[in-house]
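Practice record 12: protein with zinc ion.
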Amino acid sequence: MDLKRIDRAIQAYLKDAEPSDAARLEFFRGLFALQQERCDELEGAAGAVLVESEGFDEAYLSGRPLLQLYPATIEAPAFAETCRRISTHLIGRAGLSDEVSGALGGIDWDGFSRAADLALAGVDPCGFVEAVRCDGAARESFGRALDVAVLVLAFAVRTHVQNTAERLMDAVSTDAKEGNHARPLRCPVCGGAASLSHVGAPEALQGAGRLQFCSACGTAWHFERIRCGSCGSQDQGDLHYHHLDGDAAHRLQTCDACGSYQRVAFQDDLQVAMCLDVEDVVMAKLDRVALDPRFHRD
Ligand SMILES: [Zn+2]
Ligand SMILES: [Zn+2]
């Protein structure tokens, strides 16, 4: 994470933010700083490991998540420490009720991490988080804090996977990532669905480019300009953009073929320096209006 870029983007959004949005932006600014500090500590403890690039291009082009070839190593005591720090940040800054804060503060992260399938977390971050959410024992021990505890886990896994994810993307050739091949539909590192799309990145494909962003592991990858991020349809007739009045920078791309939608940030309409992590936070509110029929069709 580039904290300077995050700060610039958050400062710009804070200028016209309503109080509840401002609190949310401040919460995430603190969270991103904490995650990056922890990433740096973990990197320092493990030392930079060079990744062999054997087989990575084939995996990338065939849609096989790179973490399956080269899993991130997650140690239980270190993971528990990350969960504790993130959970303290949530308790202090997320505006939780006393009941939920109390339940979250009472979680034994050491005990949880010793029993957890951290090998799965290192290969499939989203799969790990979903498995915990559905696990009877975890549900019982998290109690009223289940939803926020699951968030803590998602933020913690990202922190432990991000350094490996960056290295794996570096190990894939530029030709595989940017050449004339079909792009991976899901995150090439962890296999998660893209949480955000960015159109018009100057570094991508002669200005007509598009990047997909995976918030589970922090990976951004090149993507076709006209394509559904869920089912991969490239039929222009199926794809529509919608946005709220006065905000053409943040749009929803809907797909008639699969009925899903994706959040897309348009660089050219954006008044703020593009930062994918911050856009992911800002655009979360579009999820609440995604089903609202009052959208404007372009
Ligand atoms: Zn990912
Ligand atoms: Zn689709």
